[in-house]
Amino acid sequence: MNFMNKNVIAVAIGALGFILGLSFLGNAIKNRNKSENTIAVTGLGSKQFTSDLITWSGSFSKNNSDLKSAYDELAMDRKVINDYLISKGIKQNEIVFSSVDIQKQFRSYNDSNGNYVQGEFSGYNLTQNVSIESKEVGKIENLSRNITEIINRGIEFTSSSPSYFYTKLATVKQEMIASATKDAKERAEKIAENSGSSLGNLKKATMGVIQITAPNSNEDYSYGGTFNTSSKEKEASITIKLEYEVN
Questions:
Q1: Could you identify which of 113, 159, 236, 239 might form a hypothetical disulfide with 147, taking C-beta atoms 3.0 to 4.6 angstroms apart as the criterion?
Q2: Phi/psi at 56 (5° precision)
Q3: Segment 143-151 long-range contacts (CB within 8 Å, at least 24 positions apart)
Q4: ∠101-104-109 over CA atoms, to 5°?
Q5: Are 159 and 132 spatial neighbours (Cβ–Cβ below 8 Å)?
Q6: What pLDDT was estimated at residue 6?
Q7: So what's the pLDDT on residue 186?
């Protein structure tokens, strides 16, 4: 093969490679444009509801230099508390007493150099918790507000604030997801209509975390989800992000 024929073949191969390169580039541009021809929208679903489960707890304690005496006195207080709760219409199976926490007490002081010194043993401090879980929300609310009646009976009692929950949250979540999805799709359809296009296939759907706050509050949403337990009235919300192809 002479030198000229070799050059012709080389030019032909180069031209073919150039044509194939243009073809691949054209397909890449086409596919890139196709992937960019999408609409991504976020829809919101929310619902307000009233809690149907309440929990409440309190603690009481006794101090005595003799452990048995302290335990006996605490047991007497426990009976008074239990009888009081029953008299207020609380069911026995709703009342839970924890185990007794026993702490040794010491007379402590700071010496002349300001150093902390643990002094001699001064007695025992016994503490016990009582808690209630009930679906009678109003009844337990009233109980927590009027718990000073126990204190008036000579019992050293500390009451916590009630916590509120909702047992049908799974149903609420499903309703919100449906509402958020519908909201997102309607937004996407409106955007496509305004641009003279139509929606194609759904490419991707991403669900956010559920956020539960008090209605009309300024509570912040959190990355892992917010769950308010201090308010009986609640508002839940969730977001759905949909990505559609556009025709």
A1: 159
A2: -150, 145
A3: 143/56, 143/85, 143/88, 143/90, 144/56, 147/58, 149/84, 150/58, 150/80, 150/81, 150/84
A4: 135
A5: no
A6: 40
A7: 95
Cα–Cα nearest to 211, from 41, 42, 40, 48: 48
Question: Counting beta carbons within 10 angstroms of the beta carbon of residue 81, is it exposed (0 to 12), middle (13 to 18) or buried (19 or more)?
Answer: buried
Integer Cα distance of 146 and 153 in angstroms = 13
Place of tokens 């556009």: 246
Q: Which residue has 């499903």 as its token pair? A: 174
* Interior/surface letters 203-212, b for 16+ CB within 10 angstroms, e for the rest: eeeeebebbb
Determine the topology of domain 36-50+168-246 in CATH.
Translation Initiation Factor IF3 (3.30.110)
CB atoms within 10 A of CB 80: 16
3-state secondary structure of 203: strand
Parts of the chain with a pLDDT under 70: 1-36, 111
- Cβ contacts of 61 within 8 Å, gap of 6 or more: 74, 125, 126, 127, 128, 156
Q: What is 54-162's CATH superfamily?
A: Protein of unknown function (DUF541), domain 2 (3.30.70.2970)
